[in-house]
């Protein structure tokens, strides 16, 4: 039995016909870190709040560590679920110093143990020197680590974090992704992290759950999800991609598209005739005598690579262009003719 189980979990608000969360089934192993990823309004926070017990499901079952937390006839209150929550704005108490903030959930502990535990979790998040400071005397990243320390202090079974990185600037965000995963791993805590940022989700979690309109679209390890997105929505939500309509060739290893024949990666055979393929831009490699050719219509520099828009034929339709990443050192001139090959590993059949 998995450590955390959500079974057929749904939630509708008021008289709204559409479900905010619709038939979600999810299993987490102990110590696993999972991200809920999806666009605004897809039901991430609602799912998290149902696990925490702040929101009542309309239907479904929640089990943690073998104990039913919610079902048709059981509803355990939030404070008895063994859950630590980190809110998007950290929600530290401004009038309490860091030590007292972290101590907040330990009021039933003996004084000596309480002090020891505060010291322990402050060391865990690397802020043992900040115990006497107040939240407004800390940077954003430090406040976030304190919020995490406070959530971890009572030794929860599960830590839930809602958009933990959204208030941080780009470089701090990268550091915090690393720090948060390290801290959760050291504490061997099971974690669910809500984010709308694919990079957050991929960097911090063992598995990613992509949601849309309250419905799970795919659950997979980051690498697998990137290489084999199940449908067009997932392909476009986790990174950029080229989506092409095509027909399956008789050998079941190639798809005929408007750019020509595209080779598929090794996979189980699909007998469907009309298909869609997703081709990642970095799977298209400029080559002197590549199989596909076109004209460079636009170049955008990202700092790490150049994003090219290559028009394949004399046509005005956007569908006739391909997005291709080229290394920064490569000279690419707008209007020039280029040719490229496609790596089958970055091609996927999608629904
Ligand atoms: N208390 C509420 N009453 C009514 N509708 C709600 C309530 N909370 C959420 N909703 C609706 O449920 C849907 C899912 O909301 P939720 O907050 O879970 O989305 P989210 O994925 O966390 O989005 P975001 O990325 O913007 O935080 C939305 O359509 C939202 O308007
Ligand atoms: Mg939300």
Automatic annotation (TrEMBL):
<dbReference type="Pfam" id="PF08402">
    <property type="entry name" value="TOBE_2"/>
</dbReference>
<protein>
    <recommendedName>
        <fullName>Carnitine transport ATP-binding protein OpuCA</fullName>
        <ecNumber>7.6.2.9</ecNumber>
    </recommendedName>
</protein>
<feature type="domain" description="ABC transporter">
    <location>
        <begin position="4"/>
        <end position="238"/>
    </location>
</feature>
<dbReference type="InterPro" id="IPR027417">
    <property type="entry name" value="P-loop_NTPase"/>
</dbReference>
<keyword id="KW-0547">Nucleotide-binding</keyword>
<keyword id="KW-0472">Membrane</keyword>
<dbReference type="InterPro" id="IPR017871">
    <property type="entry name" value="ABC_transporter-like_CS"/>
</dbReference>
<dbReference type="InterPro" id="IPR015853">
    <property type="entry name" value="ABC_transpr_FbpC"/>
</dbReference>
<keyword id="KW-1003">Cell membrane</keyword>
<dbReference type="InterPro" id="IPR003439">
    <property type="entry name" value="ABC_transporter-like_ATP-bd"/>
</dbReference>
<dbReference type="InterPro" id="IPR013611">
    <property type="entry name" value="Transp-assoc_OB_typ2"/>
</dbReference>
<dbReference type="InterPro" id="IPR050093">
    <property type="entry name" value="ABC_SmlMolc_Importer"/>
</dbReference>
<keyword id="KW-0410">Iron transport</keyword>
<dbReference type="GO" id="GO:0005524">
    <property type="term" value="F:ATP binding"/>
</dbReference>
<dbReference type="GO" id="GO:0016887">
    <property type="term" value="F:ATP hydrolysis activity"/>
</dbReference>
<dbReference type="Pfam" id="PF00005">
    <property type="entry name" value="ABC_tran"/>
</dbReference>
<dbReference type="GO" id="GO:0015418">
    <property type="term" value="F:ABC-type quaternary ammonium compound transporting activity"/>
</dbReference>
<dbReference type="InterPro" id="IPR008995">
    <property type="entry name" value="Mo/tungstate-bd_C_term_dom"/>
</dbReference>
<keyword id="KW-0813">Transport</keyword>
<dbReference type="InterPro" id="IPR003593">
    <property type="entry name" value="AAA+_ATPase"/>
</dbReference>
<dbReference type="GO" id="GO:0015408">
    <property type="term" value="F:ABC-type ferric iron transporter activity"/>
</dbReference>
<keyword id="KW-0406">Ion transport</keyword>
<keyword id="KW-0067">ATP-binding</keyword>
<dbReference type="GO" id="GO:0043190">
    <property type="term" value="C:ATP-binding cassette (ABC) transporter complex"/>
</dbReference>
<comment type="subunit">
    <text>The complex is composed of two ATP-binding proteins (OpuCA), two transmembrane proteins (OpuCB and OpuCD) and a solute-binding protein (OpuCC).</text>
</comment>
<keyword id="KW-0408">Iron</keyword>
């Amino acid at each position: 039995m998995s450590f955390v189980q959500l079974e057929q979990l749904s939630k509708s608000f008021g008289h709204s016909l559409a479900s905010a969360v619709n038939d979600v089934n999810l299993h987490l192993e102990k110590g696993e870190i999972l991200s809920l990823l999806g666009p605004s309004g897809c039901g991430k926070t609602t799912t998290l709040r149902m696990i925490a017990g702040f929101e009542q499901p309309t239907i479904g079952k929640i089990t943690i560590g073998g104990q039913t937390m919610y079902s048709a006839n059981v509803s355990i209150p939030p404070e008895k679920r063994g859950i630590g929550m980190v809110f998007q704005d950290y929600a530290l108490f401004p009038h309490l110093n860091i030590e007292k903030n972290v101590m907040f959930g330990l009021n039933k502990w003996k004084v000596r143990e309480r002090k020891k535990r505060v010291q322990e979790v402050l060391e865990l998040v690397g802020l043992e020197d900040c115990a006497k400071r107040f939240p407004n005397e800390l940077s954003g990243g430090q406040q976030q680590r304190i919020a995490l320390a406070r959530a971890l202090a009572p030794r929860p079974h599960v830590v839930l974090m809602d958009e933990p990185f959204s208030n941080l600037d780009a470089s701090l965000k990268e550091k915090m992704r690393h720090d948060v995963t390290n801290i959760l791993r050291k504490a061997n805590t099971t974690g669910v992290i809500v984010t709308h940022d694919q990079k957050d989700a991929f960097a911090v979690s063992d598995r990613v759950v992509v949601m849309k309109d309250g419905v799970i679209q795919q659950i997979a390890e980051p690498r697998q999800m990137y290489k084999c997105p199940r449908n067009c929505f997932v392909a476009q939500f986790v990174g950029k991609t080229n989506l092409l309509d095509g027909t399956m060739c008789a050998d079941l290893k190639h798809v005929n598209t408007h750019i020509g024949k595209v080779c598929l990666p090794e996979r189980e055979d699909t007998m469907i005739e009309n298909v869609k393929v997703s081709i990642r831009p970095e799977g298209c490699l400029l080559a002197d005598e590549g199989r596909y050719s076109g004209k460079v219509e636009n170049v955008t520099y990202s700092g790490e690579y150049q994003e090219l828009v290559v028009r394949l034929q004399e046509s005005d339709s956007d569908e006739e262009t391909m997005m291709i990443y080229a290394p920064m050192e490569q000279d690419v001139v707008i209007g020039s003719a280029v040719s490229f090959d496609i790596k089958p590993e970055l091609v996927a059949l999608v629904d």
